[in-house]
Amino acid sequence: MKALQQITVLGSTGSIGVSSLDVIARHPESFAVFALTAHRQVDLLIHQCLVHRPLYAVIGDAEQAANARHALRAHGLNTQILTGPQGLIDVAGASDVDIVIAAIVGAAGLRPTMAGVQAGKRILLANKESLVMAGGLFMQQVATHNATLLPVDSEHNAIFQCLPTGSTSLEKAGVKRLLLTGSGGPFRTTPLDQLAGVTPEEACAHPNWSMGRKISVDSATMMNKGLEYIEACWLFGARPEQIQILLHPQSIVHSMVEYTDGSVLAQLGVPDMRTPIAHCLAWPARAASGVPSLDFLNMPPLEFSPPSEERFPCLNLAVASFKAGGTCPAALNAANEVAVDAFLAGSLTFTQIAEVVDNVMQTWQNSEPTSLDAVECADREARLSARKHIQQFAGHPLT
């Protein structure tokens, strides 16, 4: 009898983590949870531990970790509680782990995801920042350590499904271009002169997907699609001109691949992240995800259009950062994370997110990173620069 595959879920309390645990629970004959991790939502993590009974749980804050340890012991659960960044690295690279679901949002996910890669795990990648920040280094380590990298983001998973199994390059597979789709978020048709006044609550109200607040804002600015553009270049070895981004407000066609013979293959489905998660967990087989079937007789007409450069300046900033190379994508990501946090906190307007990122990129001193330390140094510098620009927007420049 085949042993259960042991899974570490990095970021188990986020939307991807919750969806992953839902799929895992549907297949108790195949999967077991080795470790769960959370940054802030400790009450939810405790509940997840009681349901899935992992051997380990990782919590960012030591005091909260002590409270969680007490709560789990009160329920008779012997889950070992680890803390901090090293705890994340330990559960990602543990010898007993078969699969790492990398679902931590932002730069914080880079080190633990890389630990899983360097341990040769199957990586279910939802932390796009790992490739945005350190794409060359990351893919080099995947090859060196014979890790298996499977994309969870719905768009990249769709492309992966539409490419020939085992293809080593787009050219050899006869691929002409990759078509990345995006809904356009909640402000796709909002008058441009009203965008500065939209609220965080409005920005987080995505019309099709249930996501965390940071990713929801990124979807509204289409920075998320820009980061996915960068990710796609690294994942599939695509040149910038081989990728086209299309607005598709129905979120039913998750992406497409066009071949040199004129064929276009598309992956369609109900907008639910459990589909790509189930695909990656079971790959190369298939497994039930709990997602309802797509109703072709009652679904809305499918629309496609180009994104507006004026409406979505973050998209162009992301594309430009990839073409510039070096530490530019890491700086872009860092500046955006700081700007989005400021918007959610009420310190920036929605349109100032792009302005802060643009200001950081205009003065960025680019260099070629040779290590994760260099990438993280660039990340810190860009965050400091973004905070200075935010203070200037607020009328309180640093002296």
Structure description:
It is a single chain. The protein has 399 residues and is α/β, with parallel strands linked by helices. The chain folds into 2 domains: 5-151, Rossmann fold; 160-271 and 297-393, Rna Polymerase Sigma Factor, Chain: A (Orthogonal Bundle), CATH 1.10.1740. It has helices at 15-25, 42-52, 62-74, 84-93, 110-118, 129-144, 154-162, 200-203, 213-221, 223-236, 274-282, 313-324, 328-344, 350-362, 372-393, and strands spanning 5-10, 31-38, 56-59, 80-83, 99-102, 122-125, 148-151, 175-182, 243-247, 253-259, 264-268. Strands 4-3-2-1-5-6-7 form a 7-stranded parallel β-sheet, sandwiched between helices. It has a 4-stranded mixed β-sheet with strand order 9-8-10-11, covered by helices on one side. α2 packs parallel to α3 and α6 (129-144) packs parallel to α10 (223-236). The protein is globular, with a radius of gyration of 21 Å. The N and C termini lie far apart (67 Å). 46% of the residues are buried. The mean pLDDT is 94.
